[in-house]
Amino acid sequence: MKRKKSNEWLRAGLILACCCVAQGAVAGDDMALVAGGVFTMGSDRVASADESAGVGTNKPWYVDERPAHPVEVPAFLIDRYETTSVQYLQFVVASGHTPPLSWMQNGYLLSARRQELTKLDIERLRRLAAKTFKVDADTRAMDKKKLLAAIDTRLRELDKEPVTNVSWQDATAYCAWAGKRLPKEAEWEKAARGRDGLEFPWGNQWAAGRSNAGEEMWDDGVAPVGSYPGDKSPYGVYDLAGNVAEWVQEWYQAYPGAEYQSKDFGEKFKVVRGAGWGREGHYAMHQFQRAAYRFYLPPEATLDDVGFRCVKEAAAKTAQPGG
Ligand SMILES: [Ca+2]
Description:
Helices cover 29% and strands 12% of the residues. It has 323 residues and is an alpha+beta fold. Helix 2 runs antiparallel to helix 4 (85-95) and helix 7 runs parallel beside helix 8.
């Protein structure tokens, strides 16, 4: 019922939204070229019993990424940043696609009805600012102009955050609308590990504070994309270790030649790569930010630390040999 209501609300504000989105849109199509070539995917690492227990998984750690195997990956372009809320809003406005339910809760859907905020009485505006937008200031002393300015500031912050609470189907639909597609699992991993098969996007050693996850988490949880410049891969792609985990194309399947078998393999779950900003519990551990790590979810799942980015084919003239 709420979902239907949100759609009706959105349609009513369509014209206003077009104006608003045009003003707030992320400019350009910022993509990094990943050269084509053979890439070694996965690893042959073997965990001790203590190491597996320490990570808190019920299967041997690393087993999912075994064995290391060569994959031919043609050159491709990948978004340098996770898909942002303002980018996804453009898609929702243009296509009528259902917006994330979380936009009702955090007020971002009001980006599509900005002009109507000016018609609200000051008490309602004050409640919205304090309870929905969680404006970090004493709203009791603000007049209408200041309240609207504070809400606008918050909306522009939300513009830059990665969109979350989107299913695999939502992510696939967005990428198609944008003339792109979801990354293949090998493409995502190559973009993160570079030519040398790095453990983390920045290198082989863990370094606290380089990515948005665990103890170094952004105050609001999810951070505006690119807020952690240290979380950058050799190809200049940001937030592959942290911020939000990312949908990729494939079903969760065993790698070729894998000894490990799981009842979860098959066309049941879609693979998610990278770690989310983390909450309580062991998923905030840095081991989950390893670039070869694989996670999986039902394709219809919508979570507040899962988003995506897109890729597209590189033009033949930009392809470079030697991956
Ligand atoms: Ca990420």
